[in-house]
Write a structure and sequence with these properties.
The chain has 16 helices and twelve strands. By secondary structure, the protein is an alpha/beta fold. It has two domains: about 180 residues, 3-Layer(aba) Sandwich (Rossmann fold), CATH 3.40.50.2000; about 180 residues, Rossmann fold, CATH 3.40.50.2000. The strands form three sheets. Strands 9-8-7-10-11-12 form a six-stranded parallel sheet, sandwiched between helices. Strand 5, helix 6 and strand 6 form a beta-alpha-beta unit. The longest helix is centred in the middle third of the chain and has 17 residues. The chain is globular and about 65 Å long. The protein starts with 8 loop residues before the first helix and ends with a helix. About 45% of the residues are buried. The model has no long low-confidence stretch (mean pLDDT about 90).
């Protein structure tokens, strides 16, 4: 269950997991509050896709309860809207087990400037109380990383018995196919190596100002280009920062790209400057493309990146430190090649088929 299939990490994970679950064992369906988003076309035809039509929160909750009474699922996995799903399931009285697939450290989310809950202390307090109640009422919590699990225990649950860590999947065949496709013609004319690529929502949590400031420092020593893939409410802020730093000719905002891997696979290094990441799907996808990664330290990035082996982790979220990490990778071809080979090998453990087996075990345990 999801609000929609908009272009976010949780939505992509939900589709990939559901697609990969054994159709011989599971009768799979997906319910969304709104039938919209770029991932609609990626849902397998063998999966039943249902959608509500109500505009209000109460209307959505009532529609979801009606759906549950009709479908009567054995297990319900909420990738977002956790409290709404939990209360609707309990009110429907269908006896289904409820699992939350948690993609991000909740305590970081509640203080995130992108979150409506962070704008006043009483909102944060209300959200915290609601999440504690929701997590206590769920039958299973699936954390995308050890960092997410530790945050749940520390801030919301107080115990680990109901938590299982299952990393997010990567569809290797899709990444591999996408990596072989050409990039946009207009972008190809601006592609001047060495190239740094970043991808993700243009949102405050992704901290693009840090990336742009670091890139401005890097450009003093390395004539690199930066391509940023994504869209979001911070686009005007990011664009202004690019102009302010005099980087209009070397930093390119490409908007949302349904196939980011064609860009990533051609890059010399992939950069991620997020304030926090629950897992960092795009890091694994870059590694699957055979590209070394440079990422700021967070629970998700530390779980994926072995600094010095398949990429670099930057502990200090500061432009100078990040610029130096980028320079180290770009200046050393042998290091890049070694990191790229190790990155591709390490990404194998996140194959969608393996992650689906882990989800299968966790959901089967919840049912039992």
């Amino acid at each position: 269950m999801l609000p929609s299939l908009a272009g976010g990490g949780a939505e992509r994970v939900a589709v990939q997991v559901l697609n990969a679950l054994d159709a011989g064992k599971w009768d799979r369906s997906m319910y969304v509050f709104e039938r919209r988003g770029p991932y609609l076309g990626e849902v397998s035809p063998s999966i039943r896709l249902d959608a509500g039509s109500a505009a209000s929160r109460v209307g959505r909750w009532l529609a979801l309860r009606r759906y549950l009474r009709t479908a009567r699922p054995d297990v319900i996995v909420a990738f977002l809207s956790y409290l709404t799903v939990l209360t609707a399931v309990r009110a429907a009285g269908v006896g289904g087990r409820v699992a939350f697939a948690m993609q991000t450290p909740v305590s970081a989310f509640v203080t995130d400037r992108d979150s409506l809950w962070s704008r006043a202390w009483y909102r944060r307090r209300l959200f915290t109380i609601a999440m504690r109640a929701a997590c206590s009422g769920a039958d299973l919590l699936i954390a995308a990383s050890r960092g997410v699990a530790e945050d749940l225990v520390r801030s919301f649950v107080g115990r680990s018995s109901s938590i299982r860590v299952v990393n997010n999947p990567v569809d290797f065949s899709r990444v591999s196919s996408g990596a072989r496709q050409p990039i946009d013609e207009a972008d190809a004319t601006r592609w001047r190596p060495p190239v740094v690529v970043a991808a993700g929502r243009l949102a405050a949590v992704k901290n693009y100002p840090l990336l742009i400031d670091a890139f401005a420092i890097l450009r003093q020593r390395v004539p690199a280009s930066l391509f940023i893939l994504g869209e979001g409410d911070q686009e005007s802020t990011v664009r202004a920062r690019i102009i302010e730093r005099g980087l209009a000719g070397s930093v390119h905002l490409c908007g949302f790209r349904p196939n980011p891997w064609s860009y990533i696979a051609r890059a010399d290094v992939f950069a991620l400057t997020s304030r926090y990441e629950g897992f960092g799907n795009v890091l694994v996808e870059a590694m699957a493309c055979g590209v070394p990664v440079v990422a700021t330290s967070s629970p998700g990035s530390r779980e994926i990146v072995e600094s010095g082996a398949n990429g670099l982790i930057v502990e200090r979220h500061e432009p100078e430190a990040f610029a130096e990490a980028l320079r180290l990778v770009l200046d050393d071809e042998l290091l890049r090649r070694r990191m790229a080979e190790r990155a591709r090998a390490d990404a194998e453990r996140y194959r969608a088929e393996l992650v689906a087996l882990a989800y299968d075990r966790a959901l089967t345990e919840a049912l039992a």
